[in-house]
Amino acid sequence: MPAATETLDALKAKFGELPVSEFRGQTRVVVTKDNLADVMRLLREVRGFDLLVDVTCVDYLNYRDARNRFGLVYLLASTDSNERITVRVFLNEPDLAVPTMCDLWHGADWLEREAFDMFGIRFDGHPDLRRILMPEEFSAFPLRKDYPMQGRGERHNFPVITRSEA
Amino acid sequence: MATATSILDRPQQSEQDYLWTLNFGPQHPATHTTLRLVLKLDGERVVDALPDIGFLHSGFEKLGEHLDYNQYVTITDRMNYISPVANGVAWHGAVERLLGIEITARCKYIRTIVTELARISDHLLCTGAMGLDTGAFTFFLYAFYQREVIYDIFETLSGQRFHPSYTRVGGLFHDFTPLVIDKIRTFLKNFPKTLEDMERLLNRNRIFVDRTKGVGVLSKNDATNMSATGPIARASGVTRDLRKDEPYLAYADLDFQVCCATAGDCFARYYVRMAEMRESLRIIHQALENLPAGPINIGVDERTTLPTKQQVYQTIEGTITHFELVMLNRGFTVPSEESYAAIESPNGELGFYVAGDGSNIAYRARCRPPSFIHFALFPQLIRGHTLSDVVAVLGSLNIIAAELDR
After folding, report:
1. In chain A, at which end, N or C, are there fewer CB atoms within 10 A of the end residue's CB?
2. If residue A7 lies in a helix (H) or strand (E), which one and from where to where?
3. CATH number at residue A48
């Protein structure tokens, strides 16, 4: 269900004209890194988007006509009004840090850890930003487009721990 | 052990020297799948739990960027392998939204029926395994016998018991045959009796109720705040159910109820799942009796659905469409856009965020995995309970490691 006009009006009143688009019944709004935290706080506390559905990222390295490297995507929903809204932030290297959403939605914890693990996006203020799916000593970010699907030989060069060292 | 100590290397450790660290998994009969918990115990009481996941990580999302929209269904089948058809329906639902395709009425009904069968199969496994872990072995066998019947239906339907890969972009792999409809009817006739037996075995069973009531309580606020969805959120009083709130497929035409509880403990989660199976039976019954006639795939002219073999060999449009869709440098016409579509899978909201870049392979195929999000709840649910409650809480969350790690 697309976002209500009241939501978009509230955003407009506070942050001015934000690029809003609609595609197949989904409302998407693009925000800058600086006002991300305020936009999310307004959506959560004033507009009642109490469910953080997903946090994910898209790497636009080989994407046609892309001007930014990463697009961070927050999918929000409201359990009362069933509204949904997608908030996107574009990020470029070397500054891949955004404020964490953990204090607004506790569910952001693992979702942000996964985005960090797979894309190397840093979430400032995250209580426990460690790799979640890949092993701790892994150094690359596997879902980036410059990482090959076959990997870079990690499967053959993993460290062997003997019983006496364990 | 090296990782375990580094994870637990927290400032407060010196004050908590009396605590005992226990590794639960990755190979433990009660985790059922491959996941690890580092538990901090004070005697038998769990002070804290640290989930350590990723043992089954196989890069499903990366593979999604290298397989085309039809091929990827074989991978989504392996995410939540307890209810694989639901994953296929979610994936192709998301792809169809991106492409802007409206599927036929018959296809909608058939997808509804198979998703509900998958829901029953998933809930049977979850409640069955929960019973098994808390000592109700008979209950588990009752559940698994019926799961076998559902597997048999899927085998007749698609030729594959475990991973049917049944959906296609804009349609299905195969229509229902009279034999399949017969088998579903037989299942609808026999299953309610088993369900009654199962309820009689556990609903008022002293041992089971004592081990699950009041254990792992999740409040309504925490449920939404922690992004919980599906039966786990509904057991805490959240009434959200995408089948009602954002009706997709044929759910708008069918009469069923959303099952909720307010307690939010393990027993409530068990109870909601048992109740949902009854509603699923109603849905399947209605959908099967009102199954619309007509084709299951959208027309050949649209050039979005793989034509049948007969169309390929006997019509020129079929040949052209087949060629267009199968050749590597051709395929679907996809907008350079991104969209998200979700279904109410047995475990909660299962959605796919698909980015298209014009080629017939997704640029990004993000899965919103309910198991992953629900496992994050675990430390909060287990704190303060005893070691023996770990299995009850794990069982009630229905963590499927293949979906957890992808």
Report:
1. C
2. helix A5-15
3. 3.30.460.80
